[in-house]
Design goal:
Layout lengths: L6 E10 L2 E11 L3 E6 L6 H9 L6 E6 L2 E2 L5 H6 L2 E4 L11 H5 L14 H14 L16 H14 L4 E5 L7 H16 L3 E6 L2 H7 L2 E6 L2 E7 L5 H27 L1
Parallel strand pairs: 3-8, 3-9, 6-7, 7-8
Antiparallel strand pairs: 1-2, 1-4, 4-5, 9-10
Helix pairs in contact: 5-6
C-alpha cells in the first residue's frame, strides 16, 4: 500500500441551490486499497461520485489527485488522470459481442481504417483472464452475461485502458448472493493489481470483507471514517443503522411539530 493517496478530498462540500448535498467530507483512496463509501438513499453517495468522476465541481474544500489540486470540468479530464468510473447502469450495447463492448469507443484499427478484430478478441480474452475471469467465448452478446459478469467486464476494461483509480457505483446492488460474491472477488483483484478502488455501496456486508477504509455518510455528512483495524463489521452495520434511525426520528419529530 502507498502512503500517498491517489485521490483525496478534504472538507468537500456541494450545494444545489439551497439544498446542501454534501458538507465537509474527507476521503482518501490509495493505490492497493479499497475505500468503501456507505450510506442509504439520500446520504450523499451520488454527489460524492459525481465530484470524484468529474461530473460536478465541489463548492468547498479541496480535491487532489496524486498531491495536485484539481477542479475537473468533465469526466474526460478525470479519466485522463486515470480516474475511471463504472456506473451501476453500465453503458453497454446488449446485442454486441463482449469484445466490441470492451473496446467500445476505443476501437483498435489497422492501417486502412479496418477494425483489428483478431487483436480486440485476443486482448479482451487475455485481459479478462488476467483478472481471473474465465470467459472463453468473447463473441457472445454481452447481454447474455449475468449482471455480475457484465460488471467484471467493465472493471477489466477500465484496468486495461489505464485506470489508476476505479470508482464503482453500487456494483452489487441488483445482484444475488453468488453474483455479488463474483464482483467482490474482482474488486479484490483490482486492489491486488495496485489500483485505488472507491467502492460505493449501501451494504456493509459487501463492504467489510473487501474494504480497507470505510466512510459512512448520512444526509450529506460524514458520521464515521475508519480504517479496518478501527471498526468491526457489527460496529459498521450499527453506524449505518444508527444514521437511518436518527433520520426516522427526525421525520417523526417534524410530523409531531406540524400537528401541534
Amino acid at each position: 500500500m502507498s502512503d500517498t493517496p491517489l485521490v483525496r478530498l478534504d472538507g468537500a462540500g456541494k450545494s444545489y441551490g439551497n439544498v446542501i448535498a454534501l458538507r465537509d467530507v474527507d476521503l482518501e483512496a490509495s493505490p492497493g486499497e479499497v475505500t468503501c463509501v456507505l450510506g442509504d438513499n439520500g446520504a450523499g453517495k451520488s454527489t460524492l461520485i459525481k465530484i470524484v468522476a468529474g461530473l460536478h465541481r465541489h463548492d468547498t474544500g479541496t480535491y487532489t489527485v496524486q498531491g495536485e489540486e484539481v477542479a475537473f470540468s468533465s469526466p474526460r479530464e478525470a479519466l485522463d488522470l486515470g480516474i475511471a468510473t463504472v456506473y451501476q447502469d453500465l453503458a453497454v450495447v446488449p446485442l454486441m459481442p463482449v469484445w466490441r463492448n470492451f473496446f467500445l469507443g476505443s476501437e483498435k484499427r489497422r492501417r486502412l481504417g479496418r477494425l483489428d478484430i483478431p487483436f480486440m478478441r485476443a486482448t479482451t480474452r487475455d485481459e479478462l483472464h488476467a483478472m481471473g475471469i474465465d470467459l472463453r467465448d468473447v463473441d457472445r452478446p454481452i447481454g447474455t452475461l449475468s449482471g455480475g459478469e457484465r460488471q467484471c467486464v467493465a472493471i477489466a476494461r477500465a484496468v486495461y485502458f489505464g485506470a489508476k483509480a476505479l470508482v464503482l457505483d453500487e456494483p452489487t446492488a441488483a445482484l444475488g448472493v453468488k453474483q455479488a460474491g463474483v464482483v467482490l472477488r474482482y474488486i479484490v483483484q483490482a486492489r491486488e493489481r495496485g489500483l485505488a478502488v472507491i467502492f460505493i455501496t449501501h451494504n456493509p456486508h459487501h463492504a467489510y470483507p473487501v474494504g480497507d477504509r470505510f466512510l459512512i455518510l448520512d444526509r450529506g455528512r460524514s458520521i464515521g471514517y475508519h480504517t479496518k483495524d478501527e471498526i468491526s463489521r457489527d460496529e459498521l452495520t450499527g453506524l449505518m443503522a444508527g444514521g437511518a434511525e436518527l433520520e426516522q426520528l427526525a421525520h417523526e419529530l417534524e410530523r409531531g411539530l406540524r400537528k401541534e
